[in-house]
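Researcher: Let's run the pair from yesterday's discussion. Sequence first, then tokens, for each.
Model: Starting with the first of the pair.
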Amino acid sequence: MKYKLRARADREACGASDKSGRPGQASWLKITSRPSRRSITVFYGWVIVGLAFVVQFIAVGSMMQCFPVFLLPLTEEFGIGRAQGALPPVAMMLSGIVFSPLIGMAISRFPIRNVMLAGALAMALGFYALSQATTFWQIVLAYGLAGPPAMGAMGSIACNSLIVNWFERQRSLALGLAMIGMSISGAIMIPAATWGLETWGWRGVYKFFAIIPLGLMPLIAWLVVNRPEDLGLAADGDAPAEVGRSAFESAPAAPSSLRALLGTPTLWLIGAACGLSFFGALAVMNHGIAFAIDRGIDPMRAAGMLSAISVGAATGKLAFGWLADRLGEKGAFKVALTFQFFALLGLATLSGYAALVAASGLFGLGLGGIAPLQVALLARSFRGGDFSRALGLIAPLMIPFQIAGPPLAGWIFDRQGSYDLAIWIFMASTLASGFVISFLRLPDAGKPTPQAE
């Protein structure tokens, strides 16, 4: 059976005009079947989710997930040690402290489409610069300058802002679906990059990676629409208001200043709770194989523990997105923390391979759930332009926790010959996260949140 896919702007029913600036921009997608003449109407917000899935798959997969593929070739090329060779991801995270708030401010002031296009261009230029590098400091600089725009301006900050604009009741589920792209990118892009490395060399792979965001730019320019009102629609596909913007604010309020947002306790509570929950995440992933080998597990089988974390994280993004829409963001957050706590307890006390794989999967499940819940908590707490600015500010609050975990675990192992104390510390940080989140007070769903003065 052949299907015909066509886009139509359904504005006659609501009496609104297309404010996206492109005639014929799709507000709904209608799939028609010629033989049966039946049709399926899809809310355009789900197109935004699909685009966010693809964009985050590429941005995170190429910039972050694939870096281990380049580690050994770069150390051999430039004659450096592995500790120095691991600096590019650290440079990305540290520069994100500066870039993320700026990206959040840009999204609150300019069309998200333009910000994403700028991020795609920065990503392309960054990968091309990597392919031409002649010294290792140029590699570190290119990752530090191109990574945050790629993963923030084109990726997570922009994509999450779009989804928050398009969804209210199903927001957490939509966020979780889009973020699955980040979780599965490594499983697909790492083998592809490894094959490319053997075929073209590391410079050739970087050149290929530079082409990918250029190919995304037309898709971004065509499909991105800031919010449903721009197409005469309402969030979640609800019927538009009969008169003007009565279902929404009468006019968008001016975004609060960064200083005002930083003075909001809610931002610090969410940042601290999420940062504490992520404290052990990178440590478990970076030291996971070494931890398993110390338990007498074969290196090839030890890699299965990391695969279990990846599968669990992908599942957690979807499962906790669904759960938050029913249980509430705080309730789902506490469930995710519970999974993390008992998973760490299992890693500290269990020894069998199957049990360790199960504990790893449980850890990934809880960890994967925190990512969409973090954005959902911010979206409930900050509305309008304040949300994208708060999303940009939350990264500098969490990054210190994220980068502290791996060296702490390594330092403890070097002195005690075991990761046990590190795992117990990460369990304590998980409990501390639950304690902090209990102080967070969220507004009722559907009610606008007062902006920071």
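Model: Moving on to the second of the pair.
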Amino acid sequence: MHFEILPQTCRIMKSLRSVLPFFVSAFILHMLPGSSVSPPPSPAASGSPTILIRSGWQTVNIGDIAHTSGLLTLLGQHIPDARLVLWPADIRGEVEPMLRRYFPRVEIVHGGLDEDDRPATSELRAVFDRTNLFICSSAPDIGVATRVFAAWKKHHAADLPDRPYGFYGITVDRETAFAQLAGKTFLSPLDREILNEAAFVYTRETASLDYLRREKIRTRILGFAPDAVFGVDQYDTTRADAWLHANRLEKGRYICVIARTRFAPYYKIRQRPPTENDLAREAYNARHVETDLGKIRAAIIRFVRETGLKVVLCPEMTFEVEVAKEEVYDKLPEDIRGNVVWKDSYWMPDEAAAVYRGAVALLSMECHSPIIAASAGVPSLYLPTETETNKGQMWPDIGLGDWLIYLDDPAVTGESLADKLLHIYKHPAIAAEKLGRAMDSVRAIQGKTLREILAPRQ
């Protein structure tokens, strides 16, 4: 029997061949156990996405700077064909030149919202028009993005299903002592609206994830993705090596220590008169500073005397330069100060990362320097207090729970902190294997979640 294949039939068969891979991919994704990912887009919608990133919360904290470089790095690795547009909240000073140096292909758009919560500049409106996906980078709270996401929803009221938005590595803290002190004890109606209509909400620790589940948030994808700072991979070795050489520091022969007061004195940082709340926080700091930093000093003293290694006192936030000098360095015994180097100026995260990379370990009252160090393969002990959000939960979440040490615990002393540091120093292979397993887990989660991020477009 003979069949004649008509020209129009040939065209149909060619068209089917062109879309077949998309249907195959859709079937595979659909059949994966537990998969919540929708099928891939049609060929017409499958071009390189344009992704708008909201990040850059402040420049006085290298962790807030590193949220941006970390997420840009991860998106470049896992969605390499994407066109990335950064809409920063604040990248003044050295920050913007640093980002342009490491990410020359990333477009940076400036501008705010007008009083009607619409893009205030033609440049920003044009970016809103051509963007397929809007991501809020890791942050201490969803409040950094509720207004901009509301503006996005208004701008794309007619096509929001095709222009999704979401959070990547966010904390939502309404239950800790810090939340009580900050007066954030519930989700506002706008919070709920933004969360429920987001295409994805990845929290950076499971405490926030559990809270949102109990609050019955209905976002399509609700999951865990560690802080975007784990993606940091930028090292200013030139500046770091020069500083290390000038201070006679040898790689593998020092530890880094970051000390702070419980509340950051933002009125000093912003150079404004203190409010009544500022003064109350300063009084709170004063009640705890000797106990907190006395433990840090005791750990340094024992570590130096038993190892002969050096200690670098360095900042994560600008105000910590002064704290390190006045509350740690100046109060150390004279024989110990000879092995302690005070970093007398603030720095950018790429220089900090390069210095951390040469350290034996890092002891920190801040959260993000331990993440930067861990990404560089350096073991870190994180020492939160009750004035921190629940972000510290990410350490147990990735398998490093015993490197999370609550400084408020009466059982935690300078001696016990030194024990932890000395164990890392004396057993480097054990520490390296432990950290390696944790980072393997982090990278696996990063890969999975960043593949899922495109699913809402599908």
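Researcher: Give me one sentence on the second I can quote.
Model: The longest strand covers residues 50-55.
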